[in-house]
Specification:
Layout lengths: L15 H6 L16 E4 L2 E3 L5 E4 L2 E5 H7 L3 E5 L4 E6 L2 E6 L4 E4 L2 E4 L4 E4 L2 E5 H7 L2 E6 L4 E6 L4 H20 L2 H5 L10 H10 E15 L3 E15 L5 E11 L5 E13 L14 H20 L2 H5 L8 H14 E16 L4 E14 L4 E15 L2 E15 L1
Parallel strand pairs: 1-13
Antiparallel strand pairs: 1-2, 3-4, 4-11, 5-6, 6-7, 7-8, 8-9, 10-11, 12-13, 14-15, 15-16, 16-17, 18-19, 19-20, 20-21
Length: 401
């Protein structure tokens, strides 16, 4: 959920070879009258004969008649002849004459698959079936097309929903032991750290969508779209997030969280975060202000040694040095600090987190100029009595000016 990702949906992947194969399918039906073709959907005969057309060896169906049978809610733009369809876990956008369709935001080849004929908007039956996660079959003898859903069974959906309902209940109750119980025996997540984070901040998450991308007897891949807001506690940016979960079946047969990957996140209260100043001794605040000013000055003067003197030591330092050298050689950077708030401070850990709003003007050696405002989070550590900054920053917001 969004409380875990303060970073940046995997979506349903369509195998291109299957989609491209659509153009080769249906030739056996070319000489068959439309009304003789039968459609069997999940074992039941569906009446669509009046909506079926044959064109260039392909079977087409009036889009609304077919997609509603497949469980989609539909909106149609008559001006652009664009179909917007949404079902459980799948969103489709496709237009008459377009070479691509969009399935859960990803492009899929659709040349010749959406056509206008006899005043109707038609969609290729095989094409619609494949992108909707159906197995498509053709029986030449009986002139029958079969669509068999390949998606998760109702009990699998129920198991996924049960897990996320438990997660929301644990969040609401603050039950840290209950949180730990939601992770699989082989999880790669640092559950102890997660428990510490949940203990620091109380949040409320609203899950708007749960998409099951893939599933097997042992593993389920799920993408959620949700919003998380802070109710109380320490520093936390409210956000709308998209997260991919890998779920494993535990030894007791229940689904548990194996891994969690943030895919996208939008922070929704960035400006208000500057009001969340942490309590910090004045001497430490002054020292942090000083080291940050020194870093800005070193960057402006392109003084590599002085710049490195402001950051903590880290493993990839040599690689970073090469990057900074190249940057200094090819660009001129002028950065102005607009405001800074220390939003987290720990005397025990000798650490702090800075929230910064900065405007940077960058001019490249080819004369190109850009001006950007960025709001970032930057860590600081007190090492051997001196405050130093983390080499990495997390961007919460940016805009080109």
């Amino acid at each position: 959920m969004g409380r875990w990702c303060v970073e940046l949906k995997r979506i349903m992947i369509i195998v291109l070879s299957l989609v491209l194969a659509l153009s080769l399918a249906g030739t056996a039906a070319a000489a068959t009258k439309p009304q003789s073709i039968k459609l069997v959907l999940d074992g039941k005969v569906v009446e669509l004969s009046s909506s079926i057309e044959i064109s260039k060896g392909k079977t087409f169906v009036e889009f609304r008649a077919l997609l509603e049978k497949l469980g989609y809610k539909i909106e149609y733009d008559k001006v652009t002849k664009t179909i917007h369809a949404k079902a459980d876990g799948i969103t489709i956008e496709m237009s008459v004459g377009s070479d691509v369709a969009f399935v859960n935001g990803k492009t899929v080849p659709s040349t010749g698959e959406v056509i206008a004929k006899n005043g109707k908007t038609m969609v290729g039956l095989r094409f619609a079936g494949v992108i909707s996660n159906y197995k498509v079959g053709w029986n030449d003898k009986t002139q029958t097309i079969t669509l068999t859903y390949l998606g998760p069974a109702p009990e699998q959906k129920a198991a996924v929903n049960e897990l996320f309902n438990k997660l929301l209940l644990v969040e609401a109750s603050g039950d840290l032991e209950g949180l730990a119980d939601l992770f699989s025996e082989d999880t790669v997540m640092d559950v102890d750290t997660l428990k510490e984070q949940w203990a620091e901040v109380k949040t409320k998450t609203t899950i708007h969508e749960i998409i099951i991308e893939s599933f097997s007897d042992k593993e389920v891949i799920v993408v959620t779209n949700d919003e998380t807001v802070k109710l109380s506690g320490g520093f936390f940016p409210d956000n709308a997030a998209q997260t991919r979960y890998t779920l494993h079946v535990d030894s007791d047969g229940s689904l548990k969280i194996y891994d969690m990957e943030p895919l996208d996140i939008v922070f929704t209260n960035v400006q208000e975060l500057f009001d969340e100043a942490a309590a910090i001794p004045e001497a430490d605040k002054t020292a942090i202000d000083k080291v940050f000013a020194e870093q800005l000055k070193a960057a402006s003067e392109e003084n590599l040694d002085n710049y490195l003197a402001t950051i903590v030591d880290f493993e990839e330092k040599e690689a970073m040095i090469d990057t900074i050298k190249q940057l200094f050689a090819t660009t001129t950077i002028k950065t102005t600090l607009e405001k800074m708030t220390i939003v987290k401070y720990s005397a025990e850990d000798n650490s702090a987190t800075l929230l910064l709003s900065m405007v940077s003007e960058v001019e490249q050696s080819n004369g190109m100029k850009v001006k950007v405002r960025a709001i970032i989070l930057n860590g600081a550590e007190k090492t051997n009595g001196k405050w130093l900054l983390s080499p990495e920053a997390r961007i919460l917001f940016s805009e080109q000016l």
